[in-house]
Each structure stands twice: as C-alpha cells, then as structure tokens.
Specification:
There is one protein chain. With 191 residues, the chain is of the alpha+beta class. The protein contains four helices and nine strands; from the N terminus they run H-H-E-E-E-H-H-E-E-E-E-E-E. 26% of the residues lie in helices and 32% in strands. Strands 4, 5, 6, 7, 8 and 9 form a six-stranded mixed β-sheet that branches.
Length: 191
C-alpha cells in the first residue's frame, strides 16, 4: 500500500503537467470547480456540529437544487499529493478493510488512465427495510498548479455493460469533490 501511494504521489507531484484529459474528464473537473464555487459562495448552508474539532461542517441546499449539499473543511498536516494519493487508492488493503467495516458490500475499480478510474461501490446502509445502494462513478484528479488540485467523483453509466445492474439494488447518485490547497510557508516551513 505504501509503495503504491508513494508512486502515485510522485506521479502527481512530478509529472502532473504531462497528463492529457479527455473532453469528458475536463468537463467533470470544470463541473467540480463550479460546484465548489457555488458551495463556498452560498449563504444557505448551516454550520453543523462536528465530532472532530479540526473539521468544520456546513450543509443545506444550493439555490434551485433539490438535493442536499455538504462541505467538510479541515487543515491536514501533509503534502497534498500524498493526501490525494491516499484518497485515490481505493483498492489498497487498508481501504478495502475500511470499506467492508463501514457497510461496504461490493466495490470495483477499473483504471481508465493515470488520472481517472471507474468506481462501483455497493453499500448496506444498515437501516432495517432499506435495500443496498450502489454508486457508479467516474473519478478524475487534476493538479491545477503547484499549490492546488482537485479530485472529482460523478455518476456514470460507463460501467453498466460490464456490470449489469441488479434490480434488487437501489441505484444511488452522488457528486463528491475533494479540493486540496497547499498553505503558504511560514518562516520557510511548509504548512
């Protein structure tokens, strides 16, 4: 797991400018950035209590949106490339254990490129009477510059042919955006 994370974080850090994005991948990244701007500019979100004093949580509805929106913010002591690689590696032993410990029933990761993959995630919500939920998403990372990168998850039908939908499973929908921003150095010390 550690070697795979190090390899990916090195790729993100050193070769990010070489990545070539399809039109669909670029559209997903742009959609993610627009969503983050809308969330950050919204006065409709309420601050919620967090179990972690280092995490702030806001939730509510964006103008004209039926679905709820949430944002979690935290400052983490670590290099953004390593943090993004940790989130990215869904099939690591640690991620697989955590997935199953938290109600995960099935997951499939199909690599598209160095910067994108398809992700199928089926979960048992552990609510009596609720059927399992299944998300099928395209996941794309893009480093914007030396100090900022984004990872976007959005719904896709691209996996439907290879992985037929089970009619007993509820198709779920979500958009998730991880935005990483390097803080300025303080007296020459990386933050």
């Amino acid at each position: 797991d550690a070697a795979a994370r190090e390899e990916l974080s090195t790729l993100i850090e050193e070769r990010w400018g070489e990545e070539v994005y399809s039109e669909g991948e670029q559209l997903l990244i742009e959609k993610g950035k627009v969503t983050v701007q809308a969330i950050m500019g919204s006065a409709n979100l309420k601050v919620l209590e967090s179990d972690d004093p280092l995490v702030t949580i806001k939730a509510g509805h964006l103008d004209g949106d039926k679905l709820g929106t949430g944002i979690f913010e935290s400052v983490v002591d670590g290099e953004m490339e390593k943090l993004a690689a940790f989130e990215w590696l869904k099939m690591s032993r640690e991620a697989t254990k955590n997935f199953h410990d938290k109600g995960g029933v099935k997951k499939v990761v199909e690599e598209v490129s160095n910067h994108s993959f398809y992700y199928l995630s089926r979960r048992d919500l552990k609510v009596p009477g609720f059927k399992h939920r299944e998300w099928r998403q395209l996941v794309v990372w893009k480093k914007e510059d030396e100090d900022k990168m984004i990872v976007c998850y959005d719904d896709t039908d691209a996996m439907n042919e290879a992985h037929l939908r089970d009619p007993k499973i509820v198709a779920a929908s979500a958009r998730t955006i991880w935005e990483y921003e390097r803080l300025p150095e303080v007296e020459g010390i990386p933050q």
